[in-house]
Each structure stands twice: as structure tokens, then as C-alpha cells.
Write a structure and sequence with these properties.
The chain has about 230 residues and is of the alpha/beta class. It is about 25% helix and about 30% strand. The chain is built from 7 helices and 14 strands. The longest helix is centred in the first third of the chain and has 14 residues. The chain is globular and about 45 Å long.
Length: about 230
């Protein structure tokens, strides 16, 4: 049976000011009490400080065993066995276009779909939200202007937009692209919000701050989804 995906609008992993509630929620979906959590930092080029930050916050705040999957300086020979041995796959932010290209070059895209089908929890923020959908909007092409990226993994149907309340360009552009048919209908999430999918269906929106939420975006407009404050 297909498992869980937690698509986060803009979760932060920096040790300073870290809020453990969202990852408590994610780890609570895992198959064991002390889950094995793997960080995938390909969207940032496996930036050492990003990977180290993940280890620090997870080790300090959560009862789990942490690993990371490096693809630029690869250390894992059998990617499939390694990924399928995890309980949670946590995808960091960065360049969505580069992330997808690297995954496809290494065959990680197919392995991640297999992991989802096996019940492993998939999650991530920003690029780590974009990747699971058919399409998204991203700054991968141009740091000044956002653009549509209709080439996601398609594990989840439709499109998405993270940082919905955090970056001024996001909301009007995403609504216009969906209205024009450049992207299929989908979901948007504020920086402090996350969409919880079971299979391909949204079961809940969870947030870290009152007022943050997620939205269903259709060609004729957007609908705020009910949200639970963690």
C-alpha cells in the first residue's frame, strides 16, 4: 500500500530557533518507534553545512537514527537497498531542476517511488515539496523570476507551490499558471504549513503558526484548507 508524503511549504532545519513539532509529526507516521531517517540534500549540491544542520537538529530533538544519501560525492553502492532500508526520506530545499536531474541520472526517482509504494514516509520542504508533484513553480531557472517546472516525479498528481505566503511572486504567478493551464490544478502551502497525503489524497494540513494553512488551487481560484495547529 502506498504510504505517506508530507509536503512542507518552507520548514527550516537550522539549529537556531528550530521547532521540532513538524518533524515530530513526520516521525510519528513512521513504521517503528525509533525510525531511520535519511536526509537527501541533492537540491543544495549536498552542501555540508545543510547536511550537518540536519544531523544536529534531528539528533538533539528526536529519537531516531539519522543517515544521509550523498549523490555528488557518492558513498552508497546499492542505492535501492539503502533507500528501502529507511523509514523516512527527508528531502531538503534548493534547486528543484537540478535535484530531479541528479535523481534521474542515478535512478533515485524510480527507487523513491518504490519506497513510497512500500510505505516509507516521504517528506521535504521547498524543492523537497516540489519534487513529488507533476509540476511546480520554481526559481531553479532564474533567481530573479519564478517559472513553471512541469517535470516533477508525479508521485502525487497535479502541481504545487511552496512558500505561498513567504515570497511575493508566488501566489499571483501560481494562480495565473493554473488558470491558464500551464500547470495542472494543485496545492499551495504557506511557509509554516504542510500537507499530509496518504496515497494521493490529502488527509490533513498541519501548521506551526496560527493563521498559516494550505490551499487547493483550481483554474477558477483558490480554497483555503482546514488546518490543525501542532
Amino acid at each position: 500500500m502506498s504510504g505517506h508524503i508530507v509536503a512542507m511549504g518552507g520548514a527550516r532545519l537550522t539549529p537556531a530557533g528550530y521547532d521540532p513539532r513538524l518533524n515530530d509529526f513526520v516521525l510519528g507516521l513512521a513504521r517503528r518507534a525509533r525510525p531511520r531517517v535519511c536526509f537527501v540534500g541533492a537540491a543544495s549540491g549536498d552542501a555540508p553545512e545543510y547536511v550537518a544542520g540536519f544531523y544536529r537538529v534531528l539528533a538533539a530533538h528526536h529519537a531516531c537514527d539519522v543517515a544521509d544519501l550523498a549523490l555528488f560525492d557518492r558513498t552508497v553502492a546499492d542505492l535501492r537497498a539503502f533507500v528501502l532500508g529507511q523509514d523516512v526520506i527527508w528531502v531538503g530545499g534548493g534547486n528543484t531542476l537540478s535535484l530531479l536531474a541528479v535523481w534521474r541520472a542515478h535512478g533515485v526517482d524510480a527507487v523513491l517511488r518504490e519506497a513510497w509504494e512500500a510505505g516509507i514516509v516521504l517528506c521535504g520542504s521547498s524543492a523537497g515539496m516540489n519534487c513529488w508533484f507533476e509540476g511546480s513553480i520554481t526559481d531553479s531557472f532564474n533567481l530573479v523570476e519564478l517559472a513553471p517546472l512541469p517535470d516533477g516525479l508525479g508521485v502525487l498528481p497535479g502541481s504545487c507551490c511552496p512558500h505561498y505566503d513567504g515570497e511575493a511572486q508566488r501566489r499571483p504567478l501560481y494562480r495565473r499558471l493554473v488558470a491558464e493551464g500551464a500547470l495542472p490544478p494543485g496545492y499551495a502551502a504557506d511557509d509554516d504549513a504542510a500537507l499530509h497525503f496518504e496515497g494521493a489524497e490529502v488527509t490533513e494540513v498541519v501548521t506551526l503558526t496560527a493563521g498559516a494553512t494550505a490551499y487547493r488551487v483550481e483554474p477558477d481560484g483558490e480554497t483555503a484548507l482546514p488546518a490543525r495547529l501542532l
